[in-house]
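Please produce the structure of this protein holding zinc ion.
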Amino acid sequence: MTGHWVEDETPPVILMDTRTPPMWDGVSMEWLDWTPPLTGFLCANNDLLKTSICPKCRHPWQPWWTRGHENGWKLKHHSRLQVDLERCGWCNLTLAISRWESQEPQEWVLDENDYKEQP
Ligand SMILES: [Zn+2]
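Below is the modeled complex.
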């Protein structure tokens, strides 16, 4: 393997694009605050930390992270839908892993349309 970026390159400390999708599959969503990239303590048991590179900007893939649930899920103590977002701090490429209950997780790349209020 060649072309690996500098290992100790640290991602931006401020996330420029903090948008999250207001709706997902027609469900109104609420989101946690963005969590900064986990750097400096690589743990073999944490599958969030893959030693890979961003497919868009080729920086190390050290994404910011947030999780969304169905709006009002805390009152119901239940969310049918859980969506994890991983966003590159350099180029804002955002991957989403969505899980409807009892279904296999699906992976997506978000685009501008995902941040619009839907009818
Ligand atoms: Zn990137």
